[in-house]
Structure to design on (1020 residues):
């Protein structure tokens, strides 16, 4: 059996094939295809790379090169919810560092780490383009700005 | 005409090239790091920055195209400053471990820093640390030294086509890695090693054993492994080959090598090499003197010849030996022994196929230029994986695909799977029906060209009889395949041994010839031995004299008789299979085997062995005490590749010089034979291999007037005039096979990229790449037999059985078990039957029925 069938649901395979059809070359479809894999498994395991590479016909070493280049792809297993907090200049000036400490002290969430209950992982991000409303973060695909400790408490409540 | 001015020098150019190329053409050196002549332009390292008049910023010479009137300066203070700055950055993370690095002395970074500085660095933070990766047997990765030029990645992907490595991570963390992160498990061509400008990717074979400047000699010779005949340079010190590298600019392989050619040189100087002759005394092989051994061979052969006639003696020539060796050997058999009993393992397909093809298309029909494949618009591959049998030829097919050409394959070809092949995979045994259908379709679409009436009448027979053809192929791919074939303007047809060793091979080959004729293609016949072609050219065949003159024609024989000053028997001799049969029956009394392991390389080795044991006298001349040599009465150690001079002729018919690289005591194969000949009162006095070649050029119409000096240039393709040199062209035998497809499991030969058999199993690096023969089977077939990946299985045929580990592999055809023929006691051919195709006279190895069962597991 091919690795793609072991890894992916038929629906996901179809989704990637449809993505492929939208682009002139297989390589161009790599970024969105890797997103599908990440959505399915939460991170890009070697097997996930292999499966994507099999569907697209892009060499797996190249797929892994792309997936390790961009920060939005996770190359380690992640908790159920991924907190991506910006600590770049604007956010830092407006107290992002304090928020990092807050997450560590209150939730046991270290940068690059995952909570023991696997509920959250924390990834420190470079500028996510929300300098005007800094500090800012993403949780999974949801965007939050003007963060305070209290606001973070409220937000995190929503993610189990 | 474009005129540019570089450093005040006017350069006139026919067409626009890069500034770098223009400068190089005028002998002006611009420093580079990411640029490499074998690779696509990249423009990443910025070391080639130059000043161009009227351009505001410095420009990269390796990517900028010249325009008329351009003025360039390549060395100014400002440029040197920038280069120094770039180098300082590159050294930030560099460990500066040059005293310990094998690259020192040929490192491009070291040379650049030596030229431009800096002498000190200002970077205060810690350097990045990455441990050297020694997980791989032949390649070592040291990522601290990497300068991120990506040459290796571009080589692996863009030229080798393996795409095994990539740039992983980003910024200061980026590094080069195979997908696994550890072992490469790649094609091990080592071409990434050749292009790495620093010591970041290196061969482990010569690790810490010498410095590049300690190499005493760079000796250009030809790879010993396959019929591509790649140019290699052996770097030698103290009579040891330290390293083998390709030559950029070679018309055959232009800077590329495969795993065998690059890493397979260690058999030279292997401790198990035979050094002393051996004679069987009281049943045991004992070392003896040359005098005694040669005297004994001469005496016994003369005795048997007198008693039973020359035809009671037979010789087996070697596709690994030089033209000179093979020429002298067949001359010995014909002139001294007085028999045409001379043949070789070329009878396993190549010889018969070559003769069949030349009979239709003329002498030298398959002698097409390998590099030309990449310029074909369509390449049709049938009967094997060119990327493992003739790897560098395989690269040309990959290049063809990359340039937009079509790759069409009959059956699944693993090494081409990433090159958009259009595959037609016939179900078990239906290859014939598929080929018939393609022929019929081409005839109806293109019509018959009308240039070869005999062939066309045969084609008509096929078309009329074929009907619709019931090839079990998916209709989906069929129109695409046929459409591309029909539309092609410069097609090539590549034929592998698997087809020549299948049931009905002669008929299938006819169909491929018909296809080739209908599309007006060029033919390539794959061969896995370095001098298979040359050996045949030399007349190592029972019916053909050197240069393919039929032995049965008196007027041809006369020429050779005059030259050799003796009579030549008019009776064609026995072919290799007939020899074994005759030995088994006791009709053949003696055999002389030169550089061949018949017990291992012919089907049904047990039978071969039993038959050869019945010989009254067996002489084996080889490098190692092979399965065959162990049966011999006299074993004669010969000098091997790397130890002697001579010539090889590759599949293109390119005659190339093979050179001595190291000095060893001993004699070349031809010299041993000449000595025996002298002992049998037939003078053969050659001063050296060049003198032998001179005789060849006088006698063989193919080699007329060639000289060693001329050949040395590498561009001598034998003077083929297209005239048929054999018997009358005309008869095209057709022998349509019964198609058997009853779901039985048949044997297939797994042609492993890393091995050739005899020499490769004595090359530790190649053994490390592939150290255990593994049988491969598709999941469906394995599942039906309740076999799992990793099981030990017993594979049995009528004649023999062997035990191997099983690998379940989705790329294998159903109902086939693939077994390689590499290691002693585990060879696929030992299982094979000996049914010969009536036309090609090649054994239908791939039609051998086998059973596969699990062993070694506790049965309940
Ligand atoms: S050895 Fe060849 S196949 Fe392997 S990584 Fe290097 S270039 Fe690629
Ligand atoms: S390993 Fe060598 S060839 Fe590859 S990027 Fe690094 S320096 Fe360049
Ligand atoms: S392709 Fe053939 S001749 Fe060339 S390096 Fe490989 S084995 Fe040697
Ligand atoms: S710095 Fe945080 S969003 Fe721009
Ligand atoms: S050689 Fe021109 S940029 Fe690297």
């Amino acid at each position: 059996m091919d690795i793609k069938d072991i890894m992916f649901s038929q629906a996901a395979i179809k989704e990637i094939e449809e993505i492929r059809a939208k682009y002139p070359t297989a390589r161009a479809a790599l970024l969105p295809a890797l997103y599908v894999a990440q959505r399915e498994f939460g991170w890009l395991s070697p097997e996930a790379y292999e499966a994507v590479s099999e569907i697209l016909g892009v060499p797996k070493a190249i797929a892994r090169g792309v997936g390790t280049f961009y920060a939005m792809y996770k190359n380690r297993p992640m908790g159920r919810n991924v907190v991506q907090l910006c600590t770049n200049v604007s956010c830092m000036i407006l107290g992002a560092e304090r928020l990092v400490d807050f997450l560590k002290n209150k939730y046991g969430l270290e940068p690059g780490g995952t909570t023991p209950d696997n509920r959250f992982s924390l990834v420190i991000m470079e500028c996510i383009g929300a300098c005007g409303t800094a500090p800012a973060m993403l949780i999974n695909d949801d965007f939050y700005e003007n963060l305070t400790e209290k606001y973070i408490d409220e937000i995190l409540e929503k993610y189990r | 005409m474009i005129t540019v001015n570089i450093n005040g020098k006017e350069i006139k150019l026919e067409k626009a090239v890069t500034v770098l190329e223009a400068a190089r053409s005028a002998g002006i050196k611009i420093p580079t790091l990411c640029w490499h002549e074998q690779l696509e332009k990249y423009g990443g390292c910025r070391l080639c920055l130059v000043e161009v008049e009227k351009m505001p910023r410095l420009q990269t010479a390796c990517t900028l195209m010249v325009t008329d009137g351009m003025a360039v300066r390549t060395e100014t203070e400002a440029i040197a400053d920038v280069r120094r700055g770039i180098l300082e950055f590159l050294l930030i993370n560099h460990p500066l471990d040059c005293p310990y690095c094998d690259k020192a002395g040929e490192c491009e970074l070291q040379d650049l820093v030596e030229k431009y500085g800096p002498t000190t660095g200002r970077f205060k933070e810690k350097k990045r640390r990455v441990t050297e990766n020694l997980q791989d047997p032949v390649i070592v990765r040291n990522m601290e030294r990497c300068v991120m030029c990506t040459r290796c990645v571009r080589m692996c992907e863009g030229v080798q086509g393996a795409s095994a490595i990539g740039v992983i991570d980003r910024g200061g963390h980026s590094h080069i890695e195979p997908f696994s992160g550890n072992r490469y498990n790649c094609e091990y061509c080592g071409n990434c090693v050749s292009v790495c400008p620093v010591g970041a990717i290196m061969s482990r074979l010569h690790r810490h054993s010498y410095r590049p400047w300690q190499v005493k000699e760079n000796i250009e010779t030809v790879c010993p492994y396959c019929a591509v005949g790649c140019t290699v340079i052996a770097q030698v010190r103290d009579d040891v080959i330290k390293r083998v590298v390709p030559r950029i600019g070679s018309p055959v392989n232009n800077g590329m090598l495969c795993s065998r050619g690059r890493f397979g040189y260690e058999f030279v100087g292997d401790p198990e090499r035979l050094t002393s002759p051996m004679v069987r005394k009281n049943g045991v092989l004992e070392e003896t003197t040359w005098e005694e051994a040669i005297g004994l061979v001469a005496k016994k052969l003369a005795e048997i010849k007198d008693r039973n006639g020359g035809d009671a003696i037979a010789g087996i020539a070697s596709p690994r030996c030089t033209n000179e060796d093979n020429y002298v050997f067949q001359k010995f058999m014909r002139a001294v022994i007085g028999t045409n009993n001379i043949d070789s393992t070329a009878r396993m397909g190549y010889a018969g196929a070559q003769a069949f093809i030349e009979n239709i298309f003329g002498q030298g029909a398959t002698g097409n230029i390998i590099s030309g494949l990449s310029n074909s618009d369509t390449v049709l591959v049938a009967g094997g994986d060119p990327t493992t049998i003739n790897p560098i030829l395989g690269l040309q097919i990959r290049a063809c695909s990359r340039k937009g050409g079509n790759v069409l394959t009959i059956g699944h070809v693993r090494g081409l799977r990433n090159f958009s092949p259009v595959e037609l995979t016939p179900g078990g045994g239906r290859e014939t029906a598929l080929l018939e259908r393609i022929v019929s379709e081409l005839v109806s679409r293109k019509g018959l060209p009308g240039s070869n009436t005999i062939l066309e009448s045969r084609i008509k027979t096929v078309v009329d009889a074929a009907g619709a053809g019931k090839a079990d192929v998916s209709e989906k791919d069929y129109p695409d395949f046929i459409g591309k074939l029909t539309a092609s303007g410069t097609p090539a047809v590549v034929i592998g041994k698997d087809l020549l060793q299948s049931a009905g091979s002669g008929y299938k080959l006819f169909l491929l010839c018909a296809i080739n004729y209908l599309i007006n293609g060029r033919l390539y016949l794959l061969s896995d031995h370095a001098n298979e072609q040359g050996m045949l050219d030399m007349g190592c065949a029972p019916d053909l004299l050197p240069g393919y003159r039929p032995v049965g024609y008196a007027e041809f024989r006369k020429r050779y008789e005059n030259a050799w000053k003796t009579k030549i028997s008019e009776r064609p001799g026995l072919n290799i299979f007939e020899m074994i049969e005759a030995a088994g029956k006791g009709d053949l009394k003696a055999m002389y085997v030169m550089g061949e392991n018949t017990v291992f390389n012919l089907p049904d080795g047990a039978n071969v062995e039993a038959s050869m044991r019945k010989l009254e006298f067996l002489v084996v001349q080889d490098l190692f005490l092979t399965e065959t040599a162990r049966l011999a009465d006299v074993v004669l150690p010969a000098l091997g590749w790397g130890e002697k001079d001579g010539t090889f002729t590759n599949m293109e018919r390119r005659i190339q010089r093979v050179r001595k690289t190291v000095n060893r005591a001993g004699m070349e194969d031809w010299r041993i034979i000449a000595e025996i000949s002298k002992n049998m009162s037939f003078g053969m006095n050659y001063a050296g291999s060049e003198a032998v070649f001179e005789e060849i050029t006088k006698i063989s119409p193919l080699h007329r007037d060639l000289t060693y000096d001329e050949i040395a240039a590498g561009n001598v393709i034998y003077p083929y005039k297209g005239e048929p040199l054999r018997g009358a062209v005309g008869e095209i035998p057709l022998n349509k096979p019964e198609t058997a497809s009853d779901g039985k499991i048949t044997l297939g030969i797994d042609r492993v990229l890393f091995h050739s058999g005899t020499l490769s199993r004595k090359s530790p690096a190649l053994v490390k790449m592939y150290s255990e023969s593994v049988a491969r089977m598709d999941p469906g077939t394995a599942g039906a037999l309740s076999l799992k990946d990793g099981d030990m299985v017993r594979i049995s045929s009528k004649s023999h059985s062997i035990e191997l580990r099983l690998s379940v592999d989705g790329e294998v055809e159903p109902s086939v078990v693939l077994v390689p023929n590499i290691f002693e006691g585990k060879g696929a051919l030992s299982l094979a039957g000996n049914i010969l195709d009536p036309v090609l006279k090649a054994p239908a190895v791939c039609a051998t029925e086998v059973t596969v069962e699990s062993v070694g597991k506790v049965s309940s």
